[in-house]
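Hi R.,

As promised, here are both runs. First protein below:
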Amino acid sequence: MNNDIFPCLWYDGDARQSAEFYCSVFGGEITADTPVVMNIDLFGQRIMLLNGGPQFKKNPAISFMVICETEDEVQKYWDELLEGGMALMELGSYSWSSKYGWVQDKYGVTWQLFLGEKISDQRIVPTLMFIHQNNGKAKEAMELYTKTFPNSNIGNILEYGAGSEGHGQTEPSENVQHGHFVIDQYSLFCMDNSYDHQFDFNEGISLVVMTDDQSQTDHYWNALTGDGGRESMCGWLKDKYGLSWQIVPKRLIQLMNDPDQERAYQVVQAMMKMQKIIIQDLEDAYHS
């Protein structure tokens, strides 16, 4: 499992309460605690919580599949996550799992709780929903992502097949009902959905990729912004499907956490002016 790739959840001031909540539900711990950024560890996996402001709301275009080993575990998470939240698919027995439910918690994060076989040590798997103009592009996206990252592969793909329905809509038979893929040892799921949902990919939930050097940073940046993607600020980008990524050199974090506050501040100021992060320019700011 790779902890250099992890999800980031956007908050408007309530990241800390949310971090404490998830740690209590899943038995995790807070590993970084600043006014802007919180990191938590759940089942050995890193999740970042960012107090970014009111601009973006989290939504079910990216949900989190939690693979559970017992019915009791599914029930516990369901009961705790449902408090103040809402059920998107009622907890019950389905063709794909004898105990499954989809819940949106009080912080706007959606969880699919699933009794089933583990695919790896990774217990929480981000699940991407390809809807609206992206519907039918899940396979294409898996190919782009697995081509971009090393140690990647496409796993099992279940197509909808003839006459199948998703949310009461008839889905094209070749569309992906459930797909599994791995980018640099980090597992994700994806699905196509033709329902006209009131949400889509946005910055409310993004994927962070920590890079070792400039060439890796450039490679991911170019591959993901190419062919219709968009550069944003401070290492953020949107790929051609509108999925948000943060391409973050590890050196940036080291410099921002430097005990010399003045130097760290210079680095942050330099970073704020960048789209893609240029490590040398950060070093220059640090030494200025």
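And here is the second one, sequence first, then its structure tokens:
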Amino acid sequence: MNELIKQLVEQAIRHQLIQPEDAVYARNRLLALLGEAAYTDPGTVDTASIPDILDAMIEQQIAAGQSAARLDEKERLAAELMDVFVDRPSTITSTFRRLYAESPQQATDYFYQLSQANNYIQTKRIAKNIQYQADTVYGEIDITINLSKPEKDPREIAAARTEIVDSTYPTCLLCVENVGYAGRINHPARANHRIVPLSLEGEAWALQYSPYVYYNEHSIILSQTHRDMVIDRQAFARLLDFVAQFPHYFAGSNADLPIVGGSILTHDHYQGGRYEFAMDRAQALHEFVLPDHPDVTGETLHWPLTVVRLSSSDASALLDAADEVYQTWLTYEDAEHEIIAATDGVRHNTVTPIARMRGERFELDLVLRNNRTSAEHPDGIFHTHADIHHIKRENIGLIEVMGLAVLPARLLSELKEVEQFITGTSQVAPSHQAWAEELKATYAGQDVSDYVRQAVAAKFVRGLEDCGVFKQTEHGQAGLGRFLETVSRQVAGDRR
């Protein structure tokens, strides 16, 4: 254990989590957490990564009977060990603000590197993900088979049945109370977690990074008040405020309704980061104007979902225009395209908004969404249909909307079976059978892994097309044109 302690301290110094003068203090805190009575310098030690050192420490603790082998206990100990090296929130905030005064990018670089070095961002687990890019009719999109989030240990599941935890603190996974929280059987360890306070439109918000980043600098922008997600004019204003403060980042929100929304609708939050998605590069199809907003450019995109893109050098004018598009969409109906705004007072129409800066111009994408269901499509008329569910059944949220597929871990083994079926006689899961037979019929001897990967991408894009309220067809685009004419008439009517 002494060797591992020395390695961890040396790596913390190397990653600038602590200074050399902090080494003795850090070592003694580690000894206390690990139940070690004394330390003897082991001399020169091998160098390993921080996640590998932590894993080795925890395994030694388990072998010695000093820690349970459950996943939640492992994560709790790892977070506590790394918290030894992480500054207090006030110090991190002070450093972030000092660097921000020099450059917003310097500030986020510092915070992102810190969040990786302190093992809050799970770099070792993220490296397990299968990631590739594929060419489609909409350009090159990103595919990820998500292997980073560990499955629950059977021992943890069993413990959860017997260990009664009567606590609602922290209220949810995104609340600010998670900073430094030790964790428990049904709540992840967050001892090494830090956030940076922000002000968006005069409200208290905060910036953190996702522990399982799906793209570069995948960040979460969260309200410091626990409240439901709402998409409205104020949400658009906050997104524009964020990209004005951090022009090298985009910021977007999941929709605020089930089926078309994200996985957490009970805490107001957005996502951001420093990444160019396929949708960012999508070709503009048609330009339109809003009579009251001559300084705002409107475009529709060649993209599987229905995107209204607005841009202007004037954030205030852009906000007004976006709100008018949104307010029109909230009550818009088009039975020909199965769009009904509400059923028995329950709303169906909403948007997925994404803000970014292009040079000196603000840009705001409003992706039109509708969460109606039907007997034919009980999971959603504008959700991936049943023939896509063997690849992707989960909600199509912000990240997928922009062209990055986050696919379930089960596909790792299932797609291998599909490859073997195509090139041989092995069987596949019934859910993949029809698709695998189609692929086998058109297989022409190319690299089978690449062939299946491209087919997965094509399926994913097909699923995105299901989510488009106005399809990329002549009929669908005519419907979108009628909606935009309605927006213009509504603007003109408001003016009169």
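A quick note on the second one: The longest strand covers residues 349-358. Let me know what you think.

Best,
J.
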